[in-house]
Amino acid sequence: MKPSPLMLPALLPLLLPSPAGALVASPKQLQRLHQQPPVVHHTSLLRHAVASRSHAGSAATAATAAGAFREDPVNLSSVFVRSTSDNSTCLQLSATDALAFLPCAEQDCAPSPNASGYCQRWDFGDGQYLKSIRTDNIQLCVQAQTELLVDMCTVDSQLQMWSFNSSTGQLVSQLYPEQCLARSSGDVVELQNCSANVSAQMFFLGSSLENTSDDLDTAALLQNATDDLAAALDLAAAAWQEVDAALGGVADECQAQVSTLAARAASRSAESSNLLALREQNLGTAAGLQASLDHITTQEAEAQSSYDSTVAQRAAEATAYSETSTANAKEKEILSEVLEKLQEKAAVLTAGSSIASTTSPTEVAGGQRYIFLRTSGYEYPEACVDNRGVVVLDVDTNATAPVQAQWDTGFTYWVKYEDLRTVKISNSGTNLDHIIGTFAGMLEAVSADEYSDSQDHAKKDEQLLHLVTSYKETLQHIDATYETKNAARATAAATAAAAAEEVQLLTNISTEEVKLQAAFHGLCGYGESASSSGSGGEVSAARARGQVLISELQTKTEETLLTLSSLAGSKDSAAGSLLQLLPGRFAQPQPGGAGRGPQLAAAARRPAPSAAA
């Protein structure tokens, strides 16, 4: 898989192994190593070399190095825990149940107050509990608790369980695997992180004080140290080649990303131009539709005003007709009652006389008064009373009974000409005939007015209703037109707004991608154009710096091997032999990370570890 530019922060630490590895971790550490005198206390140097062994070689060399921190064989039931930093200071339990590092000495380990109570011997026979052999009634154990580092031994207490790493000389808490027993400044006993200060955590377990660092198998330790150093060089060469290849992949990916960014920028530019044109087009459409909507609103207001006015006029006409009709009906009722009374009175006064002539009209008109007297065989209902005055309401010459007559009672019916008689005043009449005639004329006039008003109102109401319907249809058409155009205007406005938002979004993306392009330029030297040179940037600087660090590592390794050679007393020792293998070990890697330098496997050069180890 090709490395991504985002992998660089994770790849850069690979330029140098972790603090647990065998390589110098930074230029300042290289400088400190370079400033160390060439001759140092050889036991401390060798044990530090073994403790700093790389993870790849530690499994193969742990058994061989075990003798550096523990007698082989050793009676772990009564041992001194001696600090390797000076080989003259041991872990001691005092009479006050306190721990400290004091000059190593044989003590009686008798409990106080009868004796000193001091004791430097410990029972680690079970490989777990570090128990003082002081002859108290209770036995005290070292435990991983800062406030109380020694307490009464408790069975199955993980707080008091320890593991001794024979390859590093560290006493590691089983409950807290990251915590180790350490000798800090002032010979104080404390718990430390196992990777913090390894030299203060390295101890030698021995059953007597006769063994010193000078008695150790120096030749074996030198062989182990040179093997570890060779393994470390192998790891450094392989790691550098892998990192350099990965950084080359990052540079390639940078160029690909810059090309992609350029293509996307061109595509966004064209899309933004199209969107801006679309926005302007829809803004114009929306403006035109809005002007049309304003005109429609004016038309609607005028039509609504005409509609309201016509409806109000029709209602006023209906009210006026209703009032007139009511008044006419009331007047007719009164006149009919008076006329009926007068006729009754006249009938009494002129008993036996008739006011109907024997002549039937051949032509009548609305409003004329006649006497109804059925003489034809036409069938009439009982309400058509004979010898009663009637008023002509309407004429239909095409009908069988062409005359619509209305009796004084208000009853109307279509009658024939031959059933009507003209009014004749009897010679035996009284002065009431004149009065009856007057009231009959008044009744005929009211009836005629009522008929005329009815006809006029019906005609005018029909006209007003037509206008109302016309205005209503106009309003409905205007409303439908408004809704259609308003929807189109809203669509155009929304399209314009969406186009503007999308243009802004594309602008924001372009702004951020310009920053990203600048970041690529800073990372790999690309960014100003797809074909820009990648000679600059952090990746190129990291590759150059890595090559410098590898060269410095080779130089410091050569100096260290010279020191090991001087400790062995001859440059022909194992260290001297290894030194001859160094030239060309860190040749400049080929492009793309292809090829690796010769690998020196520590396990191949070492004797196989024994089963006892």
Describe this structure in words.
With 613 residues, the protein is an alpha+beta fold. It is 49% helix and 12% strand. It contains nine helices and 17 strands. It has helices spanning 8-11, 27-35, 42-51, 55-65, 218-349, 432-524, 537-568, 574-579, 602-605, and strands spanning 79-83, 89-93, 99-103, 121-123, 131-132, 140-142, 150-152, 162-165, 170-173, 179-184, 188-193, 203-206, 369-372, 388-395, 403-407, 412-415, 420-421. The strands form six sheets. It has a five-stranded antiparallel β-sheet, covered by helices on one side. The protein is elongated. The model is unreliable at 1-67, 212-217, 529-534 and 570-613 (pLDDT under 50).
Note the topology.
Blueprint lengths: L7 H4 L15 H9 L6 H10 L3 H11 L13 E5 L5 E5 L5 E5 L17 E3 L7 E2 L7 E3 L7 E3 L9 E4 L4 E4 L5 E6 L3 E6 L9 E4 L11 H132 L19 E4 L15 E8 L7 E5 L4 E4 L4 E2 L10 H93 L12 H32 L5 H6 L22 H4 L8
Antiparallel strand pairs: 1-4, 1-12, 2-3, 4-5, 6-7, 8-9, 10-11, 13-14, 13-17, 14-15, 15-16
Helix pairs in contact: 2-7, 3-5, 4-5, 5-6, 5-7, 6-7
Which tags fit this structure?
49% helix, 9 helices, 613 residues, four-stranded antiparallel beta sheet, alpha+beta, disordered N terminus, five-stranded antiparallel beta sheet, 17 strands, disordered C terminus, elongated, single chain
